[in-house]
Records
---
Amino acid sequence: MKKQNVYTSQRPHPWIPFLELSALFACLILALARPALGEGKITHSFLALGGKTYIVSDEGKVEWTYPFSTRDGWMLPDGHLLLTVSKSEKFPGGGVVEITRENKILFEYRGTQSEVNTSEKLSNGNILLTEAGPNPRILEVDATGKILVTVPLTCQTTNHHMQSRMARKLANGNYLVPQLLDMVVREYTPAGKIVWEVKTPNWPFTAIRLPNRHTLINCTAGNMIIEVDAEGKTVWQLSNDDLPEPMINDACGGQRLPNGNTVFTSYHNGADKTKLIEVTREKKVVWTYSDHFPDGIHEFQILDTNGKALERPPLR
């Protein structure tokens, strides 16, 4: 009888080294093709302003709250907070406060008309704010609340609440003001002269002047964000038609991040609905935020991305 060959561990099958090498090569290809765990994930910490005022960590945990409703606000470089407070018994005309994280009041201004809708701390330490009412205006006040600059706004006076929103001072010394019911964004000189304006398709809430002289504008009830060039031509826009599902429900606050992405609020969304949305230039949704609070987020400030503090001043 012919003796059969028997393969043992001392004498490997001729195909085994090839199969092992092929398997190793396949695993290597898969490892290179597969993103690392957590790669591409975006986290943000941020200050939320609205019916509820709070700071959310990059882990999504609320780590600070303020007991009053706010319209606008900032986390300052020293960690203090500048807050535009809503009308209340204490602030019948609205107001502005600067506080520590322990809620110690460092500055307080009480509005003299219907409401105060925005504030901004300037590089010289003064505070810019707007007053809505029969005499709509921008003010600059010093640390004692003394009025140093008054800029009258050209707008309708029938509806005080719909006069203006997130006014900001520009690097050239002028002021950029979204005027809701007039459906226009205007740039004013300190003397009150209008030197630039653009009509908007709906009520403008934010007007953010970008480094390339474009202006990013959130249109609230229009559920859209537009970017216009220096001549007022729309060069980019986003609406619910561009998203996988309708996510924009009153586009109020907004911020352009250093990487070119845009974050904006969906203010009319309450508990367990998407309140903040981040999109790329290509209109891809890359980050969202929701929580259990019944109030929407009116305005906000992204503080860091993936644990790294954002450049200052923030574009918002």
Note: The first helix runs from residue 16 to 33.
---
Amino acid sequence: MITLVLGGARSGKSAVAERLAARADRPVTYVATTHVGEDSDLAERVARHRERRPPSWRTEEAGSDLPSLLKRLDGLVLLDALGGWVGAAEDMDVDAAGLCEALRERSGDTLVVSEEVGLGVHPSTEAGRAFRDALGSLNQAVAAVADEVLFVLAGRVLRLEDISDTDGGHL
């Protein structure tokens, strides 16, 4: 089962994914994609995320080869978040097809957290627009292989429907 959990900044998407993983009542591997560096605000946010997670959860830090890491992991995986992976990639060029293949082929359920970037202010820089476009395309690719897509807004969850699965495509 692949579940994509989308949401904007501070929407509660990671907390929702963590609650879903905790409900599974089995071992969880948390895959972190964000590298803090010297950003003190980000370091504080990452620390709060760590404090929320049960100490029994194993943490793996993802590098550029996220698909290979996912294929090696068994059991329930919580991947948080795709934006960190895209942002760390050279020219924001990630292997979306490889990620989707790894998600489909891995043994175990996967909760994938990602930032919804299409609802905010139009980025004022070329790098910002490139990030928005790359992550938006990646979100669509992962949503296409996901069994369930959730959208988190103000800590509340909406299940998103795939219109291609409806009867005859009529609204």
Note: The chain is about 40% helix and 20% strand.
---
Amino acid sequence: MRPVTAQMISFMLSSLLVISSAEALMKEHVHEKVLSNGLKVLLLENHKAPVVTFQVWYRVGSRNEEWGKTGLSHMLEHMMFKGTKSVPPEEFSRIIQENGGNDNAFTSSDYTAYFENISADRVQIPIELESDRMQNLMLRENDFLTERQVVMEERRLRTDDNPKASLFEQLAATAFQIQPYHWPTIGWMEDIRRFALEDLKTHYRTYYNPVNAIVVVVGDFKVEEILPVIEKAFASIPEGKAPDQKKDEEQPQAGERRIIVKKEAQLPYLMMAYHVPNLRDPDSYALEVLSAVLSSGKSSRLYQSLVREGQLALSADTDYSLVSRDPGLFSLTVEPLPGKDVGEVEKALNQEIERIQKTQIGQHELDKAKNQLEAAFLYGQDSLFYQAMLLAQYEIAADWRSIDDYIQSIRKVTPEDVMRVANRYLVPDNRTAGIPIPLPVTKGKRLPASDSSTGRSIK
């Protein structure tokens, strides 16, 4: 056994400090202020480094769109960098970069977010810039026509030419028949092609107002100093009207749905997805643990049975979003090894699901999964950006204070809970399965790597 050195003790103590700091209740450290115009401001002091992440989140994503107008939220995200009455096109990012910071934006089904990471003594700059484009965005025809072509090309590269992304898009469209999660965040190509500038102007007027936005700031500042600056910049913006966020929920599925997609691809791919609840339902924490048991790390069940022992697959993963605004999907994806039959892989995957439904997991395996989730949750908060993102995502899904429930809720999950949710949700009648049939790849064509994010690239 190696001797314990002073350096090791120091590292362990600092790690414990990080954990105890992150585990401390958010509600004891976050300052919330709702301005007179309805803008919610969340401030979290963190003095670990002289930097600040300044973020503006709008409660608008693809779930707020409608048939024939899909992709508007993502398109507007691109146009938000085209200038205001006082800031010329593309100057926003240049100003941030000249002041030593970086910025970007991203759109999801539930929100559109903009952020700047910058030195703490220059936080006034993003505050003024974000306030300006919340109320003074200039939407010009020439900029719109150019950017529409950019978005169409982005869709071709990230989805149309990406077998995995295409399959998931079709799987979601099959699984969701009522909820607006039916369509992709980037939108259908025909809808993007039909966009008109007036569509974006209407979307901007409807959703980009203080009462539909959240400002989150985390970093090296004092609340009593930064709050008046934010109030001065944003409080004068007209409140606007809070859009109706209620959406129709998906009806219970009455039988398995199965789709086959033919695409140029190197290898086949298997996806399965089950309708599940989100943060607003107590079952969500048991589903979090179930996901970790199945696919977290090389000791997980799917890796051991399909990759290591069965030698059927290159990879096997699960995905579950606890903080989606509406009930979402619990998905499983497997990439078979070359030459392996997809039917054989699917059979092995279903056997693992049946095993966890019929045989209660042991305490050691349960504790391992919980520890992995807890460690990821706590150490992730060592990042200022992640702390801010966590606050905003929880606020949009339910309430930012729900963050404080995470660790205790995970710790309360029992083996019986894991078995119960597996039997309740991972059943054939609740399943949508997707399988691509690989077509020969055109000579010289290079297929892109999978990229599910939908954000603006800063060049």
Note: The chain is about 45% helix and 20% strand.
---
Amino acid sequence: MTANARQPIEPKQLFGINFNIRDQAKFNMALQLLRESTGGIPMFAADNLISWNRNLSFLRDDYFSALLSGDESDAVEKSCIWRLYILLYFAEACSHLEGDYVELGCHKGTTAKRVTERVDFATLGKCYWLYDLFGWNPGDEHTHLPGHDNPRMYEDVVDRFADQPAVIVIKGSVPESFSQGFPELIAFAHIDMNHPDPESGALREVLPRLSAGGTIVFDDYGWWGYSAQKRVLDPIAAEHGCSILELPTGQGLLLKR
């Protein structure tokens, strides 16, 4: 082994948006002290995840570097880059399995767009099914997000994937909207609806159709503010002999054996 091979790789850092901060000034002070106390080694502080002394491999990948440096991604997407890295890793890993892909809670289609950039659905002969309410009304229990203020939210997502016939966009509540179309076999699923009722309903339909070796990524499973989802999802997974792994990013990961 050469001397260069034993040297640490170039340090990378990322500082982005963190959520649920009650006192931003104190948080910034604490983060500055943490940076000083660790002596400038690699650090990640975004999306409510603070770590240091990690390789941060995704920051070295050309695809993710371009997302972080370009204008196409907003500050929130850039801050959630570790979540995206995990999602795309498993989306690509499942491409050889039988079945289609589903995303439950696609919002503006941002994450789905990233998946289509890494998985060639046309070549694979798979479909990518996107489901969402595409709206919010006063009194609705699901989280209100800025995208819901766009009255053409659904139409804009359809237009976004107009050049990709393998992407099927379905409007309506989950799981009731599955009556409009739902794959018989699923290789990969991404569940991100911020509410226990549609997520539990979705999991009951997805798990029996999930191929052996297939993966489900839950976007909110590990977030304490959405812990009601963990309460309802764990028993459903157990019924099928599965368990959900909580990740430091706040995501949950289910691998069907």
Note: The first strand starts at residue 13 and ends at 15.
